[in-house]
Design goal:
GO biological process, one term: DNA recombination
Oligomer: single chain
Strand order of the largest sheet: 1-4-5-6-7
Order of helices and strands: HHEEEEEHHEHHEHHH
Number of helices: 9
Pfam family, one: RmuC
Largest sheet: 5 strands, mixed
Helix content: over 70%
Structural class: alpha/beta
InterPro entries: DNA_recombination_RmuC
Shape: rod-shaped
Family: Belongs to the RmuC family.
Function: Involved in DNA recombination.
């Protein structure tokens, strides 16, 4: 009998300890770990999102500051290019092949200063074919946002212009100037006849830029024949010099920067949506954790009622000890006090009920 009583006493005491230890501390630790596992990835995504926004703003400010500086030096650069062009034209007079190579070199230098990326935003001497299989190789093909293309041609003869500049005979100068205008008009007609719109993989370029590497060469031609620019424009050809071409290319570079900015904004918006979804998932997980905590609390309260409530097990086990059961341990005093309070409340409730 004593062994049975001691066994009951130990089992009920162990039951109380397990409820406090296993159901409370372990569950709290488990939920703390679960919440941490949810919050850590969210924190990383928020940090990544903030870094991307900061970098995007910094790049935007930096690009605008660079553009301002480049515009300040634009005029000086163009004057230098023009001076070099005049000197080289004098050195290369009469040799069309050398003139063509030199014109391509000047064009390449303007492209390098524009900010556009070679073999990405512009390509030099690409091969194309028309519907008849005839090949064409434009000097430069500029890629614009929206899959548009723009061709630059630099094959303009400057022999007549060089003679115009270096001949002191006024009557001869007039003849050289007329030949220079004819040379430019001839190149305009040649470009118009090339029909770059019919080339495969070209996606119909809007117009062709005819590059004249010397500012003054175009100026004297247009002064002599004011309709030169308009005649070329009517054939979808725009005559440009180093100054005007650099301005056009800078505009295209800004268009590409805006396009990249737009793509970054789309990426940021996508990340923001993903961040919102992650936060929504977090709130759902927290609500589930709350429900689990409520379930465990309800289970714990039910067990405690069995221990301390009406007809509780603690009073019954303690009564066995008072009847003589030998035990080496003592039940928790707080549990004993709680069971007594619940017992007194039950008695008081019954007394009130009988009195009424």
């Amino acid at each position: 009998m004593e062994q049975l009583q001691e066994r009951f006493s130990k089992e009920f005491e162990n039951l109380a300890n397990k409820i406090f230890d296993q159901k409370s501390e372990k569950f709290t630790l488990m939920n703390k770990e679960n919440i941490q596992n949810i919050l850590d990835p969210l924190g990383e995504k928020i940090k990544s999102f903030e870094q991307k926004v900061d970098k995007n703003n910094t790049d935007f400010i930096h690009r605008h500051a660079q553009l301002g500086e480049q515009l300040v030096h634009l005029n000086k650069q163009n004057l230098k290019i023009s001076e070099e062009a005049i000197n080289l034209t004098k050195a290369l007079k009469g040799d069309n092949k050398m003139q063509g190579n030199w014109g391509e070199m000047v064009l390449e230098r303007v492209l390098e200063r524009s900010g556009l990326q070679k073999d990405s935003e512009y390509f030099v001497q690409q091969n194309f074919q028309n519907e008849n299989g005839k090949r064409a190789m434009p000097d430069v093909v500029i890629h614009l946002p929206g899959d548009k293309k723009m061709i630059i041609d630099s094959k303009v003869s400057l022999n007549a212009y060089e003679r115009y500049m270096n001949d002191d005979d006024e009557s001869q100068k007039s003849s050289h100037l007329k030949n220079h205008v004819i040379s430019v008009k001839k190149r305009v007609d040649e470009l118009g006849a090339k029909n770059y719109h019919a080339l495969y993989q070209m996606e119909s370029p809007d117009f062709v830029l005819l590059f004249i590497p010397i500012e003054a060469a175009f100026a004297v031609a247009s002064n002599s024949y004011p309709q030169l620019y308009n005649d070329a424009f009517d054939k979808n050809i725009i005559i440009v010099t180093p100054t005007t071409l650099l301005a056009v290319l800078k505009t295209i570079d800004s268009m590409w920067q805006n396009e990249k900015q737009k793509l970054n904004a789309i990426d940021i918006a996508t990340q923001a949506g993903a961040l919102y979804d992650s936060f929504a998932n977090l709130t759902e997980d927290l609500l589930r954790v709350g429900k689990q905590i409520g379930t465990v609390q309800s289970t714990y309260d039910s067990a405690m009622k069995k221990l301390t409530g009406k007809g509780n097990l603690i009073r019954k086990v303690e009564r066995l000890k008072k009847l003589g059961a030998k035990a080496s341990k003592q039940l928790d005093t707080k549990l004993l006090a709680q069971s007594q309070e619940d017992l007194d409340e039950n008695i008081e409730t019954k007394s009130k009920t009988l009195t009424q």
